[in-house]
Amino acid sequence: MVVLNELLPGSSSSSSTHHHDHDDNHLYVYDVFLSFRGADTRNSFTDHLYNAFLDAGIKTFLDDEEIETGEPLKPELESAIKSSRASIIVLSTNYASSTWCLDELVLILEQNTKFNQIVIPIFFDVEPTDVRKQQSSFGEAMANHKVKMETETNAEKISEWCERIESWKKALTQVADLKGKDAKDRKETEFIKEVVTEIHRRLGVLLSNTLPLLIGMDHHIRFISSWLTNGSCHTPIILTVVGMGGIGKTSLAKYIFGLHSTKFHKSSFIEGINRRCKEKFTGLLDLQKQLCTDISKKIELHVNDVSVYTCKIENALARKRVFVVLDDIGSLDELDALLGNKGLYPGSKIIITTQNASLIERCAFFNSHVHPNHIEVVLKGLYKTQSLELLCIHAFKSRNPKEGYKEVSENLTKYCDGHPLALEVLGREMYNRDVEYWEECIKKLKKEPHFSIKNALHMSFDSLPSNDKELLKTIACFFVGMDRVLTETVLNACGIYTKSGITNLVDRCLLGIEFNTLMMHQLVQEMVQDLVRQESPHRPWERTRVWCHEDLLEVLEQKEGMQNLIGLAFDMRMLEKEKLSGPLEVKTDALSKMHNLKLLQLNYVKINGSYRNISKELRWLCMHGSRFKSIPSDLPMANLVALDMSHSNIESFDISNLNRESGYSQCFVSILKWLIGSSSKDKQLLGSLKILDLSFCEQLQSVGGFLELPALERLILRNCISLIEVCESVEKCVDLVHIDLRYCYKLKKAPTSIGKLKKVKTLWLDGPNPRESQIKTCDINPSDIRIHTQNSPSVIPSDSKFLTVSLPSSLVSLSLANNNLSNESFPMDFSCLLMLEELNLNNNPIISMPNCVRTLSRLRTLFMNDCDMLISVENPPRTVTTLLVRGQKNSIRKIKFVRGMSRLFFAGVKQIPDSPFEIDGMVKIEAMACVEKKILHSLGWTNLEFIEQKRLEASTKFGSTEYQTQMYYNFGIFTTIYEGEEMPDWIKCRSMGSSISFTIPSSSNNLRGLNFCFVETTSCFPIVLPLIKVSNITKNHTWIYKQYIDTVTVDGNDCLILLSHWLFGPNEMRAGDHITITLVNIGSHGIQCTKECGISVLYEDEEIEEEEDVLGYYKSWGHRIGRDLSHFRIRTGEYLLYRMDVDDNRSPSGLVDFNARYKAFSQKKKPNDQGRSQHPNPSLTI
């Protein structure tokens, strides 16, 4: 006979109950501890139970060694009991004869009382009564123990025996008093399966109740949980959590492991891999042994070879359905040793946390024949409200700041910039501190990072190669927020390898790139800057880089000792005025001692003196807001690769006229060239210059002397509002790839030689606004445009002088925005622009997409925003993946795509159109008065003529408009909205409230569709339209439909009616299917409710033979119910029928995950996809 009783956590057989708080810091090593009498069950029941636990992935402790009667409990057994979540006690015939077993029993029950340990006693061939009353074998055993006690002569030992026997008796009584389950007639295998199932259930509840609260991780937890429980063979088997140090990767992985580890045959969490490998020579081998112990029954302690253990791990992973978390992977060696390359058993899942995203797909596992799928979750920190909540939990033990602490709490939250570790560390440090302490600490942090936070981030820096360390230091001090191309150009000239370096820093989450701009987390930047500061803590002039403005004042006063300085940045606007005794004027003598200076930034600084002694090693000179009227003649520029004079007072730029502009003789210019290191009279003063930025120089009138700039690659003249002329010699800059002439209002002519340039990829010619044109074309060759000046907002005068400009065939990006270009302004053919991938036609009075656009065979992105006269966009090239037609005054009526186009990102049509509008295959809108009667009849809609003249005010998130009652069609759903309180009389099946359920009746005819109607009432306008959720319970399919419009206002009525017709394919709805339709209100805050809803089922009428299918056009659309809707399937398996604008980063009703946070990978990337920029928010697919 076998009886199973369960002792619930905290329960007791005593009448009095003691409540103990759970110890959150209790460390669990095992799921189950097995207590048993070896002589009775080791080779039978207990062995079978132990193996069943292992097969179920339940980590179980079983001791194979016997112990002599009377010996004390071994320390390792006591430790195992205390570090187990549950204990199973196999009470067999001779259990009580072992003092060891009885001591285990006492300790187990103590753990239950103190720490809520789950206890399950199993009565194996014994009666609970015999255990309770110590009868039969239990009575004999206790009598034997008493005899042994009486044989003792030592009084102290007799007392110990007496206490132990009493505790044993109480423990046996407590266990036996539990109500049990008699399994006398049960098969052992069935019973063991029941025990395993019960342990699984109880452990799962325990884990869910003890897991810590993770703030800001809800989306990630839901997404990863959905991935773990998805058993599809197409689901990726490896998920990587990527993020900078302290961002929460390990915490998230622990939480997920706690939730799901018991659902797999085997599971293992290997924590701190990179750190443990560095701390100990045998660290990697120890980790392999730990993994083997967790997922395999056997471990060979005498094996000390990493490669041997890798083979053992590979074999174990291939034999069982496992769940493994490899936390903090730092190198390929670690990953290869712990994962191998032979693949996983079906249904297994691996989670890897790392700061280096590039490691995963370079490991042996991915280079094997297995080709596993892989998905990446990127942690980027918490939002402001989440950050404040986390800080307050640690600082105030509350979710909100204490009274009087709001401002300092928000300031500290801003400093932490969403970094969870920083918020926790600083929050704990601020606990029970006054406001003055907070304020002082915030000031201190700005000068010196907190050591705990710095140490967490420092590990990432230490693992970098020396080149990347120098690169990170330089970026942190000078180039955060700067253009990537500029940074790479300058630092390459300084001998730093930037291409691979920046990629590595991005992969390690130490650097980010947004719209080609270098971004860095504030805490990372401060950590790196502090490393530079530590080069010479008290003598800043001895450091390699100086960027702090307070330090710079001290540096400028020094006369020597600055040979280490390679970079200096100073922005006058950043210096506190109260620290100055008077106007600050920098003398060039202070810079002359910095002989190795390569990077110099002096923004809005007044400078006096000669420049001839400034370092000839300069590679980057940035002088925003300079008062120079022209480039100083004695400035060493021979090695300069980037010159940035933005926002300065410069009036002309022409190096070839340097001597005339400065008043110096040709002889002096020759001497000047000798001073800058030229031994040849033909050496150009700016012969190495690659980037020239004169943007926002409002007094600049002319740019020339390009013969002296043979290496120039980027010419930036944006917003030079006085610019009149760009010299024809620009053709000599044969390496030019980027020309920016945007918003140069007075530009009278552009050089005809631009068309001769063979490498130009980007040409931006945006005009000031659509009525003040700079570009007009007329009777030109296919790839020519004309640029002119127009001083009035009227049409271009007939006597305007034009200059033909041939567009370079090498162009990749072309912007013609704001230039008053009509359709007639464009040539018929742009096919000569073979490389063009991006075309910007924003803010031009075109009425349709110009025909020449269709000839662009490689076009990927097309901008036509704010083209107020645009009516149609038809058949853009099938290569287009991004189409933007936003505009506040959108008049667009039709957008038609070429069949077979790949996935497309589309954004536009921000307001409800007041006339017919259609996006091919996506949405169609027209006034109800214009809808053909035969279409309404085919939908089963009758007697609706009265609504045709009604008017509504509807809005999207972009704005509102008044319009006639309209018909909307998308996703196979027809919808109209009108004021009223009564549903049409042909809606037969009705229900009060916001949901209705029904079973589709049998019929000899095929189901045509489903009409659904509801009445929405409110006490306050506007009415927020609810989501419609249709579920086929029988087939387990659910569709959630969000209306194209957001809100509606009905004049003179507090009720509106929404009527919709749903087309279904032949397999979505059949007779006998149970259907539930529910309305989900979003954003109404309880001020509106659904009064009534109803449905009617529509069948094909076989007696009426129609010559044509009236709805055939609508049924041909690809994205509708019954067709492929895979792009609209969300993580829950439901289909969200909603097309989000690319600007919409919200998750409607919390139903959609933030897709931008999750990146899916395949094993092999297509060559033609590498290096292409992807749209930031792929919310719409076609």
UniProtKB/TrEMBL annotation:
Cite the GO molecular-function annotations of the record: ADP binding
One Pfam family linked to the record: TIR
Region Disordered: start and end of each range?
1-21, 1163-1182
What keywords tag this UniProt record? Leucine-rich repeat, NAD, Plant defense, Repeat
Q: Does the keyword NAD apply?
A: yes
Q: Does the keyword Aminoacyl-tRNA synthetase apply?
A: no
Give start and end of each TIR domain. Answer: 28-203
The protein's matches in InterPro entries, at most eight in alphabetical order, are given as: Apaf_helical, Disease_R_plants, LRR_dom_sf, NB-ARC, P-loop_NTPase, TIR_dom, Toll_tir_struct_dom_sf, WH_DNA-bd_sf
Gene3D superfamilies referenced in this protein's UniProt entry, alphabetically: Helical domain of apoptotic protease-activating factors, P-loop containing nucleotide triphosphate hydrolases, Ribonuclease Inhibitor, Toll/interleukin-1 receptor homology (TIR) domain
Biased composition range(s): Polar residues: 1170-1182
Name the GO terms of the biological process aspect.
defense response; signal transduction
What is the protein's name according to its record?
A: TIR domain-containing protein
- The source organism is Deinandra increscens subsp. villosa
